[in-house]
Amino acid sequence: MTTRQLAVIAAMPLLAVATMARADATSDLQAQVQALQRQLEAVKAQLDKVTDDMAKQKQAEQKREAEPKEARGGAFLERKPGDAVTFLVPNGGEVTLYGQFDLSLLHDQGSEERLR
């Protein structure tokens, strides 16, 4: 055998090992890409579910707001939260009560003697 043939025979295992290493790296990258795709699909499914739930809640809220107050079982007059004495009335109106209340007691002994 010539030196050239010996060199080719010696280089063959090195080439085989290099191709296997490249194939292993490629298959590892493919496995990682597939795992990331599965994770992305799971996140998309969760996002779709949350989006659907939010749309259902919004539709239910709009439907509830469209119903008349009496149909919802609300009272004719409802107290509005806050310090003022304000009541909510049907059809979206408000009534606020305000004023002054004075209770005085006056006692004059001299007036009793004049009445006699």
Uncertain regions: pLDDT < 50 for 5+ in a row?
A: none
Element pattern in H and E: HEEEH
- Integer count of domains: 1
Cα end-to-end separation: 157 Å
Percent of residues in helices: 55-70%
Structural class, by secondary structure, is mainly alpha
Average pLDDT, all residues: 77
In percent terms, what proportion of residues is strand?
5-15%
Number of helical regions: 2
The value of Rg in angstroms is 44 Å
* Strand order across the largest sheet: 1-2-3
How would you describe the oligomerization state of the chains in this entry? Answer: single chain
Give the overall shape, derived from the CA principal axes: rod-shaped
Question: Which sheet architecture does the biggest sheet show?
Answer: 3 strands, antiparallel
Q: What's the count of strands?
A: 3
Structural key phrases:
mainly alpha, 116 residues, rod-shaped
Characterize the structure shown.
The chain is mainly alpha-helical and 116 residues long. The protein has one domain (3-115). The chain contains two helices and three strands. A three-stranded antiparallel beta sheet has the order 1-2-3, with no helix packed on it. Strand 2 and strand 3 (93-97) form a beta hairpin. The longest helix has 64 residues, at 3-66. The protein is rod-shaped and about 150 Å long. The N and C termini lie far apart (157 Å). The relative contact order is 0.04. The mean pLDDT is 77.
Short summary:
The protein has 116 residues and is mainly α.
Question: Which helices and strands occur, and which strands form pairs?
Answer:
Layout lengths: L2 H64 L11 E2 L5 E5 L3 E5 L11 H7 L1
